[in-house]
Amino acid sequence: MKNILYLSGIIALIFTACKSNETGNSKDVAQDQIYRKYEVSIDEETSSASASAVFRFAGDHGTTLELSSPAKITANGVELIEGTLLFGGAYYRSEDPVTCPDNKVLLRYVDAKEVVLEESFEAGKATFTNVSDTFRLGKNISIPFTFSGGDPTDNFEILLLDKDKRSLSFYAQSNTERFFEIPGTATDTLTTGDFQLQIISHKRKNLDNHSTLGGIADFSCNYKPVTVVAVK
Predict the structure, then answer these.
(1) Which residues, 6+ apart, have CB-to-CB distance to 230 below 8 Å?
(2) Selecting from 3.40.50.620, 3.40.630.40, 2.60.40.2840, 3.40.50.720, what CATH number does the domain 125-201+225-231 have?
């Protein structure tokens, strides 16, 4: 699962390359004209996260930037390394999973003038309530869940994964009622046997605008899955 999270973040960043495939140096531009785009994905089961960042001059469609020393970006104290987007352009990523035992990630960006910009991401806890030991395929099922702590989320998703690695996902009816409505017609083709249910939260937030351009961050958390038995 953590590999899927990591790859999904990289793919999302790859598509930003079509905006500009040129690369500049962060020390050569006005520091308050640097636009930031962050991706953070937490995996609660492994207490780890992946993180990546793109820096652009003069906005979301501008030239990507290599960070010039002393500029750098870290996730929970681990420095992100430079990579190259598919069609050119620089980005930064965590080389290995970043430890985050409390479902929290702190990204700390130091610009070329040693101004420090920090952004924190806290996923809180999301758990199923009153989940049966069996999941009946082909039958409509309502699955409630709870959420506590952390940043307010944009939406919650449930991932269904059968023993043949076939999956389906559905979004919660609302963030306040907090339950997933699973239509039986959608699950009828899945395989019986061991079956995983997993909650995923999604959040897009504006970055703290210490600069005139700021930026955005896409933040998600895969909470610990629950194993049940799927039956017909």
Answers:
(1) 134, 135, 136, 137, 162, 190, 191, 192, 193, 194, 195
(2) 2.60.40.2840
